[in-house]
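Please review the protein record below. Let me know how this chain folds according to its tokens.
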Amino acid sequence: MTKKRTIKIVIIKLILLISSFVLHAQTELKHSDQAPHWVKQKPYNPEAYIGIGFAEKKKGFNHFEEAKKNALYDVTSEIKVNVSGTSMLYSTQKNNQYKENYEGLITLKNSDNIEGYELKGTYENETVYWVYYELNKEKYLAKKEKEKETAINNASILIQQAFEYEANNDFILSFKSKLTAFNYISAYIHEEVKFNANSYKISTPIDLCNLIQKQLSNITIKLATNAYVYLPFQDTYESLLYRVKTKSNTLQSFPFLLKPITQGLKINEQATTNDNGIIEIQIQKIENNQLEQVIELTPDLYTLSNKDSSMITGLKILTPFINPPTLQIYIKTKRNINIAFKIKELHFADNNELENKIDVANSTDTTEYSNTLKIIKEQFKDPLFKIVTSISKADYVINISSNTKQDENSTLLENQFGQYLVRSNVNIKLVDQKSKKTIYKSTLPKIYGYSSSFKEASIKAYSSIQLELRLREAIFFLKSKCLSM
């Protein structure tokens, strides 16, 4: 190996060594510019709640605030205040039965509910901005404990005021004080909370729930005037007046929600007691055939809160824990309407004459062919109506005149198939017995019957399901006319 070649090899090795050093230095520099470890993996700190947030960099978009907001929401998810990821299991007594409910109790609406957090780091590249916050657990828990103590003290004062109002027979202020007190401590309903109201046998939020339930359950209602008997399908009605009490005292200026239970009954949906504890129920429509109408009243607690935000919040949380009383009112309708019948039923016979004449006037008997009478009697098996055997005792008389005749297509059917075809003709008339005026009259659509004889074809026409359906529709309308007069 010559001296020149040796020098050349040394120079090449030196160049390679320098290149390797430069490359290593560049790699180390590049590594220092990469995202910090907390961007890649959320760190753990046993002494702090940690929140990592990021936001994309967009024109006209405040990515600094958005990243901060996301980081603080991340903090709340760790301290389990955000209801979107946190709920609780509790038991509440309803109708003497315990029922488990799975409900969220506290909603964190924005990051302003968190204080004392510290910025630990930021990082950004060309498209994304990252931020890292920590909240000291010890400081946070000390602050929450102080807030809890303040809430308990405020609730204790309100509970004492509630009992003072109750002693002075002020139901509403007593209730509002209890509800506001519950709002103060509702955030701690799943915790062991004891506050300064032991003299009233209240030591936990559930005790307060039970107290509110008991107060509402003391509400009673009683008719304040003579009972009315209403007639359905009238244009106007007298209002019902009821007296509302709690124990022995009248309940003044208390709102209720009203709900008609009977279908076809329409009333005012809300009402408030006056200074004498009287509530007015306005009957607007009775469009049914029931002898009794049912109305339910429940305390309108949201109206009672008078848009007080703290009370409304308390109500939303309280609702699953209580069962507001449902008060029922029963309304009587008018006496039975007396109905009499006149039915003439004729059948087309094989000798091409109308025979088998059935002339029914207030008869309780049915015959082989009188299917119309059977159908009508079935439809008037209604508590509002009574079938009478004397026309003089009737309020209304229903006249039904019917017959069957050979249809023009009967000959063609007979020649081809040996069958005879008849069609029915049914006329209905409703008469007011007192005025003798015809209130309503109608002719039913034709119904057809076919058989091997005209007699059997007539029987089939009268016993057809189509005729029964037409008669049912007509009788329903006649009943409505009777009730509306």
Notes: The radius of gyration is 42 Å. Residues 137-167 form the longest helix (31 residues). The first strand starts at residue 48 and ends at 56. DSSP finds twelve helices and 23 strands in the chain.
